[in-house]
Amino acid sequence: MNKKIILIFSLTVLAIVMSGCIGSTDAPEATTGNEVLTAADMIVVRNIPAGFEYLGAPPTSVDDIKHEYVDVAGIVDAAEGTYQNTDSVEVHITVVECEDSDAADEFVNQYKLSLPPLARGTQFAEESFNNHFATRIMDYTTVGGEQVAQYAYLWSNDNFVFIVNGNTEDFTQTRALAEATGQ
Predict the structure, then answer these.
(1) CATH number 1.10.150 is the correct assignment for the domain at 39-180
(2) Using one digit for the tens of pLDDT, what is the confidence trace for 120-159?
(3) Mind listing the pLDDT tens digit for each residue in 7-46?
(4) Which residue in 51, 71, 91, 136 could disulfide with 85, CB within 3.0 to 4.6 Å?
(5) What residue spans define the domains of the chain?
(6) In the Cβ-directed half-sphere of 28, how many Cα atoms lie within 13 Å?
(7) Mind spelling out the 3-state secondary structure of the chain?
(8) pTM of the full predicted structure?
C-alpha cells in the first residue's frame, strides 16, 4: 500500500515538474482573457534578444514611478526588469499598471509633455512593432564629456504603460528589448 502511494505521489510530482508549473520563471505566454495580469507579469524573462542577459527586477514602487517619470492619477503598480549585453549596454523595461486605459494614455501624454524640448534633432518618432505604435524618444546625455543621443520607447497597451530605455546611443538595441515584450 505504501509503495502505491509513493508511486502515485512520485508520478504526480514528475507530471507537475515536467509541465513547468514548478520552478519556472517564465512570463505567461498568452492569456485567455480570464487572468488578471500585473506589471510584474509583463517583465520579459525569456525570449530575451540575443546577447542580452536578464539581471533581475529591482524593487519599484508607485512612488518611484511618480518621482522618476510623471505623477498622474490612476497608477496602481509598477515593475522593472534590468538587462545587460556583453558590451555593458544596460536596458530597463519599466511596466506601469494603471487603473484603466484612459489613465495609461494620460500617463503617456503627461510624460511626453514633461520632457524638455531638444535643442537639436527630432525628439519623438512614431514606430510600429508588435502590431501597435510606440514613441521613440531621443534625449541627449553627457558621456565622457560629449553629448550623445540615447533612446527610449514609450507606449500604452490597455491599462499598461511600457517604458524601455538604456545607456546606448544605438536605438536598435533598445528597440530589440521593446519588441521582446510582445506588447
Answers:
(1) no
(2) 888 999 999 999 999 999 998 888 888 888 999 999 999 9
(3) 344 434 334 333 333 333 333 333 445 577 888 888 888 8
(4) 51
(5) 39-180
(6) 14
(7) CHHHHHHHHHHHHHHHHHHCCCCCCCCCCCCCCCCCCCCHHHCCCCCCCCCEEEEECCCCCHHHHHHHCCCCCCEEEEEEEEEEECCCCEEEEEEEEECCHHHHHHHHHHHHHHCCCCCCCCCEEEEEECCEEEEEEEEEEEECCEEEEEEEEEEEECCEEEEEEECCCCHHHHHHHHHHCCC
(8) 0.78
Distance CA 151, CA 140 (A): 9
Q: What are the cell numbers at 62?
A: 508607485
